Amino acid sequence: MGLVRSGPVSGYGTAAGTGALAALLLVGICGSPAYTGWAAATLTDPDSAGGFYLRLLAWPAWRLDADGQAGGLFAADLRAVALVVLAVALLYLLPAAQVARVPGPVSQFFSGWAAYVLAGGLAAVLAALLGPDPSLLAALQDASSGAGYGFLTGWIIGTASLGGRA
C-alpha cells in the first residue's frame, strides 16, 4: 500500500512555518558574534537611522562561550533561544489567518508581525527573570526593549509569513 496524502498538496510551506524559518535566520545571522561585533564597531553610525537599525538587529545576541558570565552559556544565550522558541510557538498559536474577517495576506502579515513583537517582549522578560541577578525592574525594562525590537523588526517575519498558505 502506498503513501496517501489528504488535503491539498502545495510546494509552499505554511505561513507559520515560513515565519518560523525567518525568525530562526534573523536571530541566527543578526545575533551572531560576527554580526554583533560588526554592528558595534565604528562601521555603523549610532546617530543615523541606518546605524540605529543595524545595531537594533543585533539585540538577540548569542555567544559561543559564556565569557565568565554567571549561569554559564545558557544564561548568556537565554534571550536568543527564548526569542526563537516563543516566536515559533506564537506563529503557530495565533490563528489570525483562520478567524480574520478578511482572510488572506493582510492577516498573515499582521499575525507574523504581532507574534514577533510578543515573542521579543516575553523573551526579554524570561531572560531577565531566569538569568543571573533577576529583578522585576530589569524584567520590565527589558520587556520594553524586547517589544521595541519586535515592533521594528517584526515586519520581516510578517513578510516571510506571506510566502506560505494559511
UniProtKB/TrEMBL annotation:
Protein name: Uncharacterized protein
Keyword Membrane: yes
Taxonomic superkingdom: Bacteria
Chain segments annotated as transmembrane: 12-35, 78-97, 109-131, 143-163
Species for this entry: Micromonospora lupini str. Lupac 08
UniProt KW keywords: Membrane, Transmembrane, Transmembrane helix
